[in-house]
Amino acid sequence: MATKAVVLAAGEGTRLRPLTFTRPKPLIPLGPNPSIYYLLSHLSREGFDDIVMVVGGPLKGQIMDYLGDGSRLGLRITYAVEPDGLRIGSAGSLKLDEHLLDDTFLVAQADTLTEIPLREAVNVHRAGGGHATIVLTRVRDASSFGVAMLDSDNVITGFQEKPSEKDARSNLVSTGFYIMEPDSLDYIADERWDFAKDLFPCLLKLHKKLSGFTSDSFWVDIGSLEGYLRGVRWVVERTTQPHDAAATEVPRRVITDGEVHVGRRAQVTGPGIIEREVTIEDEAKIRPYCVIMRNAHVSSGTVLDRSVLMERSSVGRNCTIIDSVIGQSAILQGSVTVKGSIIGPGSVIGEGAEVLCGSRVWPNVRIGADEIVNGIVAAPIEKAFYFYIGFGQYTGLLATTVEGFIDGLEKVPVESIGFHAKRRDFERWTRDVLASNELADSIEELRRMGVTGEELRRGMIEVTKQWADEVSSPRDDA
Questions:
Q1: What whole-number distance in Å separates Cα of residue 376 and Cα of residue 292?
Q2: Residue bearing the bigger pLDDT, 424 or 89
Q3: What number is the average pLDDT over the span 416-426?
Q4: CA-to-CA distance for 323 and 355, rounded, in angstroms?
Q5: How confident is the model at residue 351 (pLDDT cuts 50, 70, 90)?
Q6: Among 179, 210, 7, which residue's Cα sits nearest to residue 104?
Q7: 69-83, 94-108, 251-265: which has the minimum mean pLDDT?
Q8: What are the chain's domains?
Q9: In sequence order, what are the residues at sequence separation of 6 or more whose Cβ sits closer than 8 angstroms to the Cβ of residue 73?
């Protein structure tokens, strides 16, 4: 029996910022193809060829243009578009396409790569009955995930949301794949509802049957930097050399799709992917699990290890780049070090600068020579947030980084926070400069609750720190 798959592709891609400012997370490339290609290819192999794609946000048109009607992938794709300006949760988004779901269906997150046998999961769900089955996998440390507890019949008896490692009652976590019955949608009480926080606990409370299907097959959430790099490694290991590859200067386990210019004393070690019109100068070292996209340039003496250079990026002499992503058209000048970080599209990193693990540099930001970046650099000086107490009463504090913004919130007179909150300045800056609707919505909620004074200061600092931790966290323990 054919089963529809609903693919949720409307998220902001917060944890992959700044890459997701210029293209939606499902279109972030993993080697030769964007991530959504690999998910949909797996769904097609598993027999899910009728796809409902939930999209939203200002970049949704890119997804729709890339996928079209799905025929290129042997699929039929119908789109459900989230309304602009409306906060919709992962479960709430299903109400957009409820009229298309008249039988058992699969829910998939667009930011996952997997080899889980999803058709088998559907068959097990149908045999066992119940409102929904959550596809689970085992992890070493469940503290970053929602944890499910099962009884001997694989029925879910409870959940823990991100328990500490010592308090976790299980190492089984949700993969974001769910098999559901149409009547389960009747229990979604609000369009903001999420699956893990709202819908599934509600069903358990009402004693509706939820089952678990456990698989140890490959699965990764590519929404974090570490998860993304694990996904790159998975793609690199499974990509084969095209028969018409023109490059003969690279090792056999390095995949190319055209002419690559490699200096004679360069060291290129596979597996890896190097696209056409890439230049790698003498004495550069390209270590395993690197992807270098079209028209990128790697200068002499640079070391690239387990990292991605996106198209038209340029890396100067004697740089070191480890476990990082350099966005398209970014420029790294000489002797730059980048570890465990993301450099945004169009950014310029000055000579001798050091970008520390977990840092993020927003698009088109310039980092000066010999600067040390530790955190989120969010804006050039012309887009800085200036703290005032009142009209014309500048405090002397400004913020171009998220850390600077938090520092300003901690230091300015409380009257300044009230002044900006009333004028909605915080909301506009976080939405327009940080490009975070999520953080702006949290700040708006504080304002609407009527929080003032030191309580408002504490609330602002708390929600901003939470958002920054989510953006910059390198962890992915699956």
A1: 24
A2: 424
A3: 94
A4: 12
A5: very high
A6: 179
A7: 251-265
A8: 4-230 (3.90.550.10), 243-377 (2.160.10.10), 381-472 (no CATH)
A9: 37, 40, 41, 44, 67
